[in-house]
């Protein structure tokens, strides 16, 4: 067999293999599109994922957390006050979905899909930096919120420290620690407010589900028109037709809309003063079409 002939045969074989791969890819794409458009995949919470889908998503989550938490510096061993603060935060923010030693999650959490896992052994499965990352940033499409927008850094680490103690607590020990945590939480003092932070404001808007009712520039969400779109808010002269459009008034409206306009359907969401100021800073400096 001559060299030109071998070269030609190799090119033909390569082209045939490439065509086969592209053809298989096209068939797979068409099949996937048919499933997508046909609505054949059941998204009902009463139907669980296939086991291989669940395992694939769980493994992907584990690898993602390990990668993104790899450079996080863990503070030194916390003191008793931090552990008690963490216990208080756990009861307030975590026990409802994850339960605790001798305490079941609330009924709504028991039927969530995916199910929020118990945290009584979390410290045996995750490193402290990984627990911090999950607590701070949450997990997409799992119901796990990002607590970094609502808890300060010392609180996040106090919560991580308490998670480290959970594997060693009995039901009685858990109740006893929670009893000691209540007075410690009552004596905690509030930190002074930092200047408004528009970058943080964009994140905070998503933590109060604002995009579920409003179209917000730079925030991913559904095509919803429950409330007015918040594009070009800085160009409006008044808020709710009543308040002059200033940063302070916008923060006031965000925190207590019904105190400003008794007939508004916008609910009071329990937005903190800092969060409202940061939201206002973002909304008043963002234009339509922005993806900042």
Short structural description:
The protein has 292 residues and is mostly helical. The protein has helices at 3-38, 51-68, 80-93, 95-98, 107-110, 122-125, 128-137, 153-165, 171-186, 198-207, 247-255, 257-260, 273-283; strands spanning 238-239, 243-244.
Task: Explain how this protein is built.
By secondary structure, the chain is mainly alpha-helical. It folds into two domains: 58-186, Orthogonal Bundle (Cytochrome Bc1 Complex, Chain D, domain 2); 198-283, Cupredoxins -  blue copper proteins (Immunoglobulin-like). It has helices at residues 3-38, 51-68, 80-93, 95-98, 107-110, 122-125, 128-137, 153-165, 171-186, 198-207, 247-255, 257-260, 273-283; strands at residues 238-239, 243-244. The chain has a two-stranded antiparallel sheet. Strand 1 and strand 2 (243-244) form a beta hairpin. Helix 3 (80-93) crosses helix 9, helix 7 crosses helix 8 and helix 11 packs across helix 13. The protein starts with a helix and ends in a 9-residue tail after the last helix. The model has no long low-confidence stretch (mean pLDDT 89).
**Structural class given helices, strands, pairing?**
mainly alpha
The percentage of residues in β strands lies in: under 5%
Helicity level: 40-55%
The main β sheet shows up as: 2 strands, antiparallel
Corresponding CATH architecture of the largest domain: Orthogonal Bundle
Topology summary:
Blueprint: H1 3-38, H2 51-68, H3 80-93, H4 95-98, H5 107-110, H6 122-125, H7 128-137, H8 153-165, H9 171-186, H10 198-207, E1 238-239, E2 243-244, H11 247-255, H12 257-260, H13 273-283
Antiparallel strand pairs: 1-2
